[in-house]
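pasting for ref. prot 1 ->
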Amino acid sequence: MNLQILKTKIKRREIDTVLVVFPDVFGRLVGKRMTAQHFLDHVAKAGTHGCNYLLTLNMEMEPLNGFKLANWEQGFGDFELRPDLGTLRLLPWQPGAAMVLCDLHHHGGKLVEEAPRAVLRRQLERLASQGLTCAIASELEFFLFNNTYAAAFASKYTGLTPSSDYRIDYHTMQPARDEAIFRSLRNWMEEADVPVESSKGEWGKGQHEVNFVYSEPLAMADRHLVFKQGTKEIAAQQGKAVTFMSKIDAAEVGSSCHIHLSIWRGARNLFWDPRAKSHVSRFTHHAGESVKRETASGGPSKLFRQ
């Protein structure tokens, strides 16, 4: 969706609310709900503001000490939230709602380098400086429970009931119990510019997986944000709860995020070598070894170092 389409939908009274958001360091979408007309008249051009402590919080929203970016000593101020209008999208599961993701700036215009989207964009700029691009797709796993979020909280997240009675990897029968949720996910995410390839049962009880269509990394990261929040909201509408935690129970299988990634120079996939016996290129081996060495040493990979 672009700005002109949004204007048309607002004029037709199809959209009355625009969520103006950005990811915090935990991948949560934070921000404000704007009336649609105020968004058009002011925010789309001039942006809005949000407290700079939002990048220095723990999971319980308590400000942490030791950050130069924002702290009690200097007093908390605001970031400028500048909408990236290329991320405008509908939220079909929220009637009358659209969303736009923002980049953060200090007053005076300087980019907030610590913001997650800015960190990722820097890595892509390093790739581009070498004439390279990245293609990426992902698979997100999560557990679905037959409990509401309020009930899960009240029980301190113990004794939750998985949405299936047994392990459902590739099963189609028990996942059909929750097809109302998954059909909504597949179709509504498409409308929200989060194109989905498929959904399936996973190995755990009540565990599921959704696969995404290939894109470039920033768009894929944005789609993860929208998908995770949207999935939780859609499940809540059905009286259920979802978690993307990597490990919810020591006795249960964990959930993963599988990444399918390739590096390209123009139309050539540098990970592929048709002449090699395994079809895996020397570039792939070099990249993998470089990342492993630099990760072990705590430094940035030489492959992407300027």
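and prot 2 ->
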Amino acid sequence: MKAVRFHEFGAPEVLQYEDVEQPTPGDGETLVAVTASAFNPADNSIRAGNLRAIPIALPHTPGYDVAGTVDGRPVVGFLPMDKDGAAAEYVVAPTSALVDAPRSIDLADAAGLPSVALTAYQGLVDHAGLTAGQRILITGAGGTVGHYAVQLAAQAGAHVIATASPSSRDAVAAAGAAEVIDHTSTDVVAAVGEQVDVVYNLAPSTPEEMTAYLGLVRDGGVIVTTTAWLPAPSDEARGVRGITEFVRPDAAQLTALVELLDAGELTLAPTRRVALADLASVHAEAAAGTLRGKVVVLP
């Protein structure tokens, strides 16, 4: 079968489109015929060798989000990040990680759902414990995780304040943000004004910005961040918790998100399709900081 792998850490050029043996599932595993995988920023960091906390074996196949079929059954899943991924024609997945794919969208586009939607859900529900009537600031809301976080927070009955650039302002507002702050031209802390119950940081913030966000959180509140390289600060004296989020597979949560999508209560982030043979070009865009939106990769 065809797959993209890297045999050493390094620049996007280490990615090779090559012939490899089709994997064989073991106990508790299922062979998935890949319709599409998805590119995520962590794929870039793992390939570059900047995320050694995830212990992978070389050569490694990236792509931990998958949409495909199992004996004709459409499935999606969030795969273990330390195992070979789905940037291939076939992938072996833990059977427990696979759920029925959404019926309301194209199967290839569904590859863009699992890890980013789970990140938003777990950040808001598991870590922040967001409830109706609370105020939440979501920074970096114009990104893919932000697309789902704003929708889920608004559906939970929270007052959503979001930061976004002018190019994504309308989309963030349409997703359910009550207030949208242009972080490129506005002092975010000053614009928020009244304290919030939750800060959900999805942006590559500086230590100074994170400290300022901490000051926005009311006593007893929480700040959750997805920036593993910059942990969330806390303030024990005020009872403010700081949580650095690491997304995990959860089939029940993913099933719930698929059901929301099929019910029209959640919209899919726009996707761009790229051929598997061209995956290195996507990594190059990510490495250069020019990648925008969600990319799904078709074998």
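The chain has a mean pLDDT of 95.
The chain has two domains: 2-113+268-298, 116-244.
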